[in-house]
Amino acid sequence: MRSRLIAGVAPLLSALGPHAGAQQTLPPVHPLGPVTISAEPMGNVASIRALSDGRVLVLDVGMHRVVLFDAALHHAVVVADTTSATGNAYGTGSGGGLTGMIAFSGDSTLIRDQATGAFLVISPAGTLARIIPKPPTAPPQLNGGPFVIGELSTVGFDQAGHLVQRLQKTFTFFPGPSEFRGDTVIEAPDSTAVLRTSLATGRLDTIAMLQAPRTGIFFVRRDNGRGGASGQQKPVVNPIPSGDDWALLNDGTIAVIRVRDYHVDWISPDGHTTSGPKVAAQWEHITEAMKVALIDSLKRRDSAQAAARNAAMTPAMRGAMAKDSAARADAAMAAGLVAVATPIGQLPPRYVDPSDLPDNRPPFMTGFALGDAEGNVWVREREPAPFNGGIIYDVINRAGTLAERVEIPASATLVGFGPGVAYLVSRVSGAVHLGKASIH
Nearest Cα to 19, choosing from 215, 294, 280, 263? Predict the structure, then answer.
C-alpha cells in the first residue's frame, strides 16, 4: 500500500512545477541477471533465509507453512504447516502463526510464534530443533503517553546472543472519558527506536533512534441513538512519508539510513558508530506552495473517487451497510462496551497538514532496506524508473558510498540475499513464485 501511494504521488508532484535541487551524477542502472523461478507456487512469502549451501527456507504465510527449497528451487520440503504430520507446528487460531524468519547461529534459523512470543529454532537439516521462550523484558512505551503502545518487531540476530528489533507504533482507540463526543487526531511520535534484547537475560538496550514519518489516527466518537456511543478511526494520509530506515548485516553491524541528508550510520556490535559520507542522489525541493497544491490535489482525487463509488452503490448495498452498523452497535451494547469500532470506510479521509510534509522529497523509501551477503545495504529509491517502470535499489558499500544501482522488475519484491544472488517474489501466469537472480 505504501509503495503504491508514493508512486501515485510522483505524477502529482511533477505536475505542480519544476523542482529545484542539487543534481548529482549517479552510477548507471543495471538489471539483475536472469531469474530462476521456483517450480512450486507459493501463497504469500513473508521472508526467506538463504543457507550457506544454496538451499533456502521460505516462510509462506499465505499457505500457513515453512518450506525448504533446494539450491535450484526445483524441490520443496515442508518443515512446518498446520497438518497433523507436523503437529500443527505452524500455529492456528486468530493469534497463531509464525512470523519473522531470522538468521540464527550458523545455518540455524529462528521463527517467532505469534501466539506465545517464543522462537522456534529450525536446524540446518530443516527440522524443528527446539524452542526458545519469549524474552522476559516487556517492550517500553515509545513516549510514555496513553495513545501509543510499543510493540517489538523482530528482524535480526547479531550472532552475539541478541535479538535486534525496531519499536513499532500501534495506535489504540481514544481512551478519553466516556462522555467524549467529537473528533480528534492522535498524532504519532516523531521518532522510534532500534533495540537489542539479550536472549539469555532479557535485558533490552536502545541502540539507535530513528526519525519516523509524520502520521496519526483520525478518531471520531458519536452518539449512536441507543444510549451509548460508536467510535471510528482511520489513518491520517501522508503522501510523502519521510523517515529513517535501517538494516542488520550478517556480522551484526546495524546500518541506519538517515533521511535528512541521506547518509549511513554504521553501528558495530560493540556500539561504535561510524558515519558515512552523503550518498549521491537527485534531491528535489518542495516549496510551501507545492505542499499545499499536493494536498489539494489528493483531496480532489479522493473526493472524485468516493463520489464514483457512492454512485455505483445500489439501494440494497446501502441497506446492508446500515444493517451491519446497527448490528455492531447492538452487539457492543449487549457486551457492555461504551465504544465500538465501526467500518472505517464511513469516515472521510483526513490528511496531514501541508507544513508536516518534508522540504525535500526523500531520495529513498522507508521500510525496504536490506543487507546483502557481502555486507552492503540495499536501499529502495523513491519511485520506479521512468524508462521501463522497474524498481531501483541503491547499493551502498561499507565505505558509505553508492557503489551501484540495481533494477529489479516492477512486478517483483526483493525479499533477501544469498552469496552473489538476490531472492525475489513475483507473479508468473497468475501464481506467486520465489525466484533468484545473480547480482552481478
Answer: 294
Q: Lay out the sheet containing 35-37: strands in order across.
A: 35-37, 431-438, 421-428, 412-418
Of 171-180, 225-234, 389-398, give the range with the top mean pLDDT: 389-398
Angle at which helix 2-16 crosses helix 288-312, to 10 degrees, equals: 120
Rounded Cα gap, residues 164 and 350, in angstroms: 34
DSSP per-residue codes, 252-295:
SPEEEEETTTTEEEEE-TTS-EEEPPPPP---EE--HHHHHHHH
Contact status, residue 242 vs residue 257, Cβ threshold 8 Å: no
Mapped onto helix, strand or coil, the DSSP state of residue 332 is: helix
Ordered by start, the domain boundaries in the chain are 136-238+289-357
> How far is residue 283's CA from residue 336's CA, in Å, rounded to a whole number?
54
Query: What does the pLDDT look like over 297-339, one tens digit per residue?
Result: 999 998 898 888 878 877 776 666 666 655 555 554 444 444 4
CA-CA distance, 235 to 352, in Å (whole number)?
10
DSSP 411: T
Question: Measured between alpha carbons, how far is 380 from 367 in angstroms, rounded to an integer?
Answer: 9
Angle at 337 between CA 332 and CA 342, to 5 degrees: 50
Strand order in the sheet with 191-198: 148-157, 162-171, 191-198, 204-211
The torsion of the CA quartet 255, 256, 260, 263, rounded to 10 degrees, works out to -10
With contact defined as beta carbons under 8 Å apart, do 239 and 290 qualify?
Answer: no
Local confidence band at 94 (pLDDT 50, 70, 90 cut-offs): very low
The confidence band for 145, taking pLDDT boundaries of 50, 70 and 90, is very low
Residues 272, 112: Cα–Cα separation, whole Å: 29
Compute the distance between CA of residue 166 and CA of residue 160 in angstroms, rounded to an integer.
18
Q: Give Cα 102 to chain centroid, integer Å.
A: 16
Residue 69 is placed in which grid cell? Answer: 527449497
Which percentage of the chain shows pLDDT scores above 70?
74
